[in-house]
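Title: Comparing notes on inverse folding

I've been comparing how different people in this forum approach sequence design from structure. To keep things fair, I'm posting one structure and asking everyone to reply with a full sequence. Here's the target:
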């Protein structure tokens, strides 16, 4: 059995669009301005980070060593949010 391909930001963006996630609930990298009250995935130096942004402040920042781990974190957070 083969392992699934790593999840990348491009694949994540396509998946979220295909599944109909509202684009105002997330931000991927620096594609446009950061949204307010949204989950964001970005690369800071040598780490991938996922956080929630509200009124310009970042909350619940989680750092990941791989893009795949960060993408899966963002996907999980979107699934958990109302």
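Reply #1:
Here's my take.
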């Amino acid at each position: 059995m083969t392992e699934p391909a790593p999840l990348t930001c491009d694949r994540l963006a396509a998946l979220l669009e295909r599944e109909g996630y509202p684009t105002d609930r997330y931000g991927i990298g620096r594609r446009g301005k950061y949204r307010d009250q949204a989950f964001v995935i970005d690369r800071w130096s040598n780490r991938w980070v996922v956080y929630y942004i509200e009124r310009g402040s970042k909350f619940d920042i989680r750092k990941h060593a791989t893009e795949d781990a960060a993408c899966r974190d963002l996907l999980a957070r979107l699934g958990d949010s109302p």
